[in-house]
Amino acid sequence: MSISEMAKTIGDSVTLKLNAKAAAIRSQGGAVIHLGGGEPKSKAPEGAVTKAQEVLKTAEIRYGPASGIPALKEAVRRYTEEFYGRKPEPSQVMVGGGAKGAVMSCLRAVLNPGEEVVFPAPYWVSYPEMVKLCNGVPVPAYPEDGTVYPKVEDIVRKLGPRTKAVIINSPNNPSGAMYSADFIGDMVRLCEDRGLYLIMDDIYHRLIFDGRTQISAYDYAEDLSDESRLVVINGVSKQYAMTGFRIGWSVASAKLTKVMTNIQSHETSGPSVLSQWAAVGALEGPQGCVEDLRSTLESNRDVVMGELKSLDGVKVERPDGTFYCFCDFSAYEKDSTKLSNFLLEKVLVVAVPGVEFGAEGYLRISFCGSVEEIKEGVARIKWALDPDSPKELMIGGEKVSRDWA
Ligand SMILES: Cc1ncc(COP(=O)(O)O)c(C=O)c1O
């Protein structure tokens, strides 16, 4: 089979592979605990469901404008005003197929072949592949101090003549780290000074803990003209538990939004109108569900941090937000893929290998499941890794014996 050189560089999704493996074990009756998930378990908000039902009942679901239906763009304008202190024009909003679709259209709009996109590591698994899909070159920036909080110098060190854009994702998947307002401010100024696009992937910005408040990149922007290269990405997937609806959006200059919309119009014609109405319902309906989710995740974060303490030698930063923690398991096993496979095979626990996020020796553990799952999952990991564990453990009603060192 002849496929493109670019396509050959695109890896398969490890998370999907793990999901498939876990599903196969489950279908055989295995009591799998999934600590690899990337979506909240709560239901979509009532407002979203009702709105989608109303629209579906008309049985007239047609093409919509390529940049998004006006009602959703209006809701996004209000959302941006509420959470970012700035109301964009409708011409500055594009609705995409999830936050992913919006980031992708933006990268397509700005990258020439060989141009570089810098982002802090650890990073969301999709950034390198998305950049490559646009014939660009991904450039991860590793914090020199070994933490999950990048410094401006870490980013500056990676900038070169071919750098076109910087992506900042805070709070961060996989570390849960929320970068400081000073760092965000410095990034805005740095990108303005160097004429770089700054893509703020804010998909987790309301899922933050310990009394933190959202940071708006606009507070630091000097250039809000049509030449602005600041792009803010958000969506309903995580905060409203609406991952399957595939609705996200970008707020950017009208000039860039027009180009992104042209691209989207030919690629997908925009996301499903039905899903867009559901997103309107979520954004305009009662907002208590977001706080409920946020506070559940915060207490889950405390549970997982408490449980992880029982694992001697595992290092982890306390997440400031999201529903992930990124744990250094290198004291037990340096090859994270091997460790992830081992845990799934031996104790039926799914955790995503850190190498996928640019950090070997780590595992990403999600705490979006139930407290029982978190506790049981970590207990099984401890049993599997601690050489002093009892010889046997009951897993899903079956006795498992340690036949490894
Ligand atoms: C950092 C980050 N950005 C974007 C997305 C994708 O969001 P959506 O499902 O809205 O495309 C994810 C999903 O895991 C994510 O972690």
**Large-scale geometry:** globular
Number of strands: 15
If you compute it from the alpha carbons, what radius of gyration comes out, rounded to the nearest whole angstrom? 22 Å
- Please give the CATH class of the largest domain: Alpha Beta
Q: pLDDT under 50 segments (min length 5)?
A: none
Largest sheet: 7 strands, mixed
Please, what is the CATH homologous superfamily of the largest domain?
Type I PLP-dependent aspartate aminotransferase-like (Major domain)
Briefly note the CATH topology name of the largest domain: Aspartate Aminotransferase, domain 2
Strand order of the largest sheet: 2-8-7-6-5-3-4
Separation of the first and last Cα atoms: 44 Å
Q: Output the number of helix runs.
A: 13
| Whole-number tally of structural domains | 2
Characterization of this structure:
This protein is an alpha/beta fold. The protein has two domains: 5-43 and 288-401, Aspartate Aminotransferase, domain 1, CATH 3.90.1150; 60-284, Type I PLP-dependent aspartate aminotransferase-like (Major domain) (Aspartate Aminotransferase, domain 2). It contains 13 helices and 15 strands. The strands form four sheets. Strands 2-8-7-6-5-3-4 form a seven-stranded mixed sheet, sandwiched between helices. Strands 9-10-13-12 form a four-stranded antiparallel sheet. Strand 12 (352-353) and strand 13 (362-366) form a beta hairpin. Helix 3 runs antiparallel to helix 10 (273-284), helix 5 (98-110) crosses helix 9 (254-267) and helix 11 runs parallel beside helix 13 (371-385). The longest helix is centred in the last third of the chain and has 21 residues, at 288-308. It starts with a helix and ends with a strand. The relative contact order is 0.17. The mean pLDDT is 96. It binds pyridoxal-5'-phosphate (PLP). Pyridoxal-5'-phosphate binds at residues 38, 98-100, 124, 169, 173, 201, 203, 235, 237, 243, 248.
